[in-house]
Each structure stands twice: as structure tokens, then as C-alpha cells.
Amino acid sequence: MAVAIVLFVLGFIWSSWHKDLLPPERFVVARGASAHQIAQQLRRQGLIWHPWTFLIWVKLHGKTNIRPGVYSISRSLGGLQILRVLRAGPPLVRVTFPEGWTSKQMAALLDSKDVTSGADFLAAVGKNKREGFLFPDTYFFEQGLAPSQVIDRMVQRFHEKEPKDMMAQAKALHVSYLQIVTMASLVEREARVPQERPIIAGVFYNRLRKHWRLESCATVEYALGGWKPQLTYKDLDVSSPYNTYRHMGLPPGPICNPGAAALEAAVHPASTDMMFFVADGGGTHRFSKYYSEHLAAQGVTVKHRANGNAEQ
């Protein structure tokens, strides 16, 4: 009898020590899962020995605060400790979205961090027309969220960060609320230095007032499905309502998700008589009032670029 007890104790010690050496187990609590389902899943994954012991702890402490999500649970934890982990909630994941990213880029990052399904996120963004309203910032998300939860957080942040007079300014500028966000997305993709954002916005508004095509290379890149270091003249002919070289006015919607500075520039553009701008190859732009000046500026720029490339 004494030998059996010793063997049992040694076995228990070895088992506990062995479990400490194993990596944490990924455990998912599905939304709406019952305590019984959670207990069974814990048993199947080898995190507890008996489901009923976990259910006793749930009975004593309540399942109400068990939060759905993705957990990393150490195999050395007991049933009560696991319950405390599940009631504390899943760990938060830091996710940073740079200004000017598209929802497609955001979806890939969210998917890679197990925050939500990238495909489902993209589908929800498209269905609800949220491109442009997903505010680029640093977020702390739980894993295993529904796409709508992620989108709602980002849209809420957008409304918190948008200029307070955005609606009024849209009316004053004779554009809709959506169009001013679209303008901000163009500014975000075209500008390379902060001081040029309001000027670029001013140029685009000037061209809209004169019923000129905007001829924004950024809209062509969006139509092509990705950003390119340099466009060709063939690219400028792509058939898409987003191609502002072929279509008048603003594109149908935002081409990226603009940050606060781009929104501010779109809402408060510079008062300027400039009508053209062209990248100078050094990160800034040359602005021109007259087409002849613009051609001269392009001539300076083209010397530094390969034949067949186009520049605004």
C-alpha cells in the first residue's frame, strides 16, 4: 500500500513537471459556448483531467464573465486557475495601421495576428462601404473577434479624430461628406511631406471647380490594385471609374484610409492658384499655375526617370 502511494505521488509530480515543459495550448472560447462545451473542450485538449471538476468551479464562481476569444493557456494551471484566465479575458494584441493603407492591407495584418478573418473583414468593409473610414492608428484587439467589432472600433476612432467642422466645410466646399473623405484619401497617397498636404488639396479643389480631370496617379494605382513606384502611360489608360485620368471629378469612393493630417487638409485646403503638381524625385512636388510651367517641371523630372514612365 505504501509503495502504491509513493508511486502515485511520484507519478503526479512527474506529470506536473512534464506539463510545465510543454508549450502553452491555444484555446478558443466560441461566442455563446456553454460551460459544458468549454469543459469538454478543455478535456479534449488535455488542459483538465475531468470536466466535472471545472464545472464545479463554474458553479461556485459563475460562468457569466467568461469572455469569448483566443487564449494561450499553460498546461500547469488547474481548473480554478483556468477559469480565472477565461474570466479575465483573452490577451490583447497590438495592431498598428499606417496612414494610407487600404482595407486589403489591413485585412492581411488582422488575419496574420488572429484578430479576425481577413476575408470576412474585407467582405464586411465592402458590403458596408467602410473604405476610407477605418482610421489608421494603434489598436489593442482581442483575438477571435467578429469583423464587425473591429470595423466598429476603427470607424468610431475615425469620428473621434475627424475635424469637428468637417460636415460644415464639406457644404462650404460644395462636396458631400463621402467626397471630402475621398479627397483626404487622395491627399494621403499623393503628399510626401506634411506642408504640402493643404496645397495638394487646394490644387485638386481648383481642378474640380474648373471641371478639369484630377489626373491623380494615386487613383490609377488603386484601380490597378496596388501601389507602384512609377506608372507607365499604359497604366494611365486602365479602364476603371477610379482612373481620374479618364473620368471627371472625384473617384466613386476613398482609395485608402487617410489619417488626421490628410483629413484636416481636405477640410481646410490651402488658398492657392496652383493647378498642377509633379513629383521632383526628392520627396516633394513642383507646383505650377500654368500648363507651360507644368510641362517645364515635368521635363526636369523626366530626365531622372526611365523612358515610358508617366508622372503627374
Distance between the termini: 90 Å
Low-confidence stretches: 6-12, 14-19, 301-312
Largest sheet: 2 strands, antiparallel
Q: pLDDT average, as an integer?
A: 87
Residues in helix, %: 40-55%
What is the number of strand segments?
Answer: 8
The helix count comes to 13
Structural class: mainly alpha
Strand residue content: 5-15%
Bulk shape = elongated
Strand order of the largest sheet: 1-2
Task: Write down the Rg.
Answer: 28 Å
- Helix and strand run: HEHHEHEHHEHHHHHEHEEHE
What are the defining features of this structure?
312 residues, mainly alpha, two-stranded antiparallel sheet, 8 strands, elongated, disordered C terminus
Description:
The chain has 312 residues and is mostly helical. Helices cover 48% and strands 10% of the residues. The protein has 13 helices and 8 strands. The strands form 4 sheets. It has a two-stranded antiparallel ribbon with strand order 1-2. A hairpin with a 5-residue loop joins β6 and β7 (285-288). The chain is elongated, with a radius of gyration of 28 Å. The termini are far apart. Mean pLDDT is 87; it is low at 6-12, 14-19 and 301-312.
Chain-wise SSE layout:
Layout: H1 2-21, E1 25-29, H2 35-44, H3 51-61, E2 69-73, H4 79-88, E3 92-96, H5 103-112, H6 118-128, E4 138-142, H7 147-161, H8 166-172, H9 177-190, H10 197-209, H11 217-224, E5 231-232, H12 260-267, E6 276-279, E7 285-288, H13 291-302, E8 309-310
Antiparallel strand pairs: 1-2, 3-4, 5-8, 6-7
Helix pairs in contact: 2-3, 5-6, 6-7, 9-10, 9-12, 10-12
